[in-house]
Specification:
This protein has 336 residues and is of the alpha/beta class. The protein is built from twelve helices and 13 strands. Helix 5 links the parallel strand 5 and strand 6. Helix 8 packs across helix 10. The structure holds nicotinamide-adenine-dinucleotide and thymidine-5'-diphosphate (TYD). The site of thymidine-5'-diphosphate has 12 residues, from helix 6 and strand 8. The site of nicotinamide-adenine-dinucleotide has 30 residues, from helix 1, helix 4, strand 5 and strand 7.
């Protein structure tokens, strides 16, 4: 493993992963391959742009010719696939883009990985593929996948393709199923950056339904470290859960954000619930811990660090919260 193609590397987790890898594996060459959708931003990669082992290629993972050209030109031996349409609410409004990128795009990458006999194909997946998990159960890697939203269904479909390529063609694959990430460069349509940036501006925080849905919010660099460990120690054909194993109610998360910022709790506004909203995700991460991984941040530490980043980096998110974003926000929230 030396020359990595990181698809979706201009997005939230991908850009943090690229910075993490260049710091921890300075001898690796990292090529980001990204379409730069609304969620992909070159600003996210500014801190690594001048690194001698970094390159950027703009392209769509559904474009087989362009993926092939990037793999050949950069002598790629490993693909790490972060590229995806990632927002559940958008996947409900417009499922076509989700199926196209998350399913067809993953298939395209697998075809190229097979054609060039790459050393490794790593798929970034999500705890959402297990579906809603009633307490006190926790999902283990061998559990059935029961996705319930267009987003999670597309991610599960991608996983099935990855596994099929491992079994059928002997492609060396690994997968990680991460819980909700929080941290720098998170597009402010997702709950934590949306609530934080709204709170900074004194704008209401839209809580879906009763707010008693539970998520395992982990710090993005802990997730990146888990991916790194699976890339180096994971078994071919296997999937690994990555999360803190601590779940928080959305309403409690919102209160904590307001407390960190010293804003009134009256900013919380309950709005119509998300269709098919999964009440709870919960992972058992013992399989990854057995490889030596530990989550380094508690939820409170991760949230505090994240909120501070948004306070200090308003020049990053203020331009995003204009234009297309405002149109999206109106469509998503105006009638709720
Ligand atoms: P993001 O939305 O911030 O970034 C996605 C990136 O993919 C963007 O840079 C975008 O431009 C790129 N992209 C989209 N369609 C593309 C295409 N057709 N071709 C090439 N590039 C394309 O997403 P994220 O939150 O960083 O998530 C990254 C990955 O991690 C996704 O696969 C997601 O399913 C998974 N994941 C996310 C979370 C989370 O909490 N955010 C948790 C678990 C797993
Ligand atoms: P989100 O960040 O969209 O991640 P996911 O749906 O993939 O878990 O949402 C996190 C939780 O917050 C989820 O239970 C939905 C909820 N939520 C709200 O209550 N209000 C919002 O405006 C958003 C975007 C999410």
């Amino acid at each position: 493993m030396r020359n990595l193609l990181v698809t979706g590397g201009a997005g939230f987790i991908g850009s943090n992963f690229v910075a993490y890898m260049l710091e921890h594996h300075p001898d690796y060459c990292i090529v980001v391959y990204d379409k730069l959708t609304y969620a992909g931003r070159l600003e996210n990669l500014e801190r690594v742009a001048s690194h001698p082992n970094f390159a950027f290629v703009r392209g769509d993972i559904c474009d087989m010719e362009a993926v092939r050209a990037a793999v050949i030109e950069h002598s790629i031996d490993t693909i790490v696939n972060f590229a995806a349409e990632t927002h559940v609410d958008r996947s409900i409004m417009e499922p076509d883009a989700v199926v196209r990128t998350n399913v067809n795009g993953t298939w395209t990458l697998l075809e190229i990985a097979r054609e060039h006999q790459l050393e490794r194909f790593h798929q970034i997946s999500t705890d959402e593929v297990y579906g809603a998990i009633p307490a006190p159960n926790r999902s283990r890697e061998g559990d059935p996948l029961e996705p319930r939203s267009p987003y999670s269904a597309s991610k599960a479909a991608a996983e099935h393709l990855v596994y099929a390529y491992h079994i059928t063609y002997g492609l060396v694959t690994t997968m990680t199923r991460g819980s909700n990430n929080i941290g720098p460069y998170h597009y402010p349509e997702k709950a934590v950056p949306l609530f934080t940036t709204n709170a900074i501006d004194g704008v209401p925080l839209p809580i879906y339904g009763d707010g008693r849905q539970m998520r395992d919010y982990q710090y993005v660099l802990d997730h990146c470290e888990g991916i790194d460990i699976v890339l180096h120690k994971g078994q071919p054909g296997e999937a690994y859960n990555v999360g803190t194993e601590v779940e928080t109610y959305n309403i409690d998360m919102a209160h904590k954000i307001l407390d960190i910022l010293g804003k009134p709790h009256t900013l919380i506004q309950h709005v119509t619930d998300r269709a098919g909203h999964d009440r709870r995700y919960a992972l058992d991460c013992s399989k990854l811990r057995a490889l030596g991984w530990r989550s380094r941040h508690t939820f409170d530490e991760a949230l505090e660090k994240t909120v501070r980043w948004y306070v200090e980096n308003q020049s990053w998110w203020r331009p995003i919260k204009s234009g297309e974003y405002l149109e999206y926000y109106r469509r998503q929230y105006a009638e709720r």
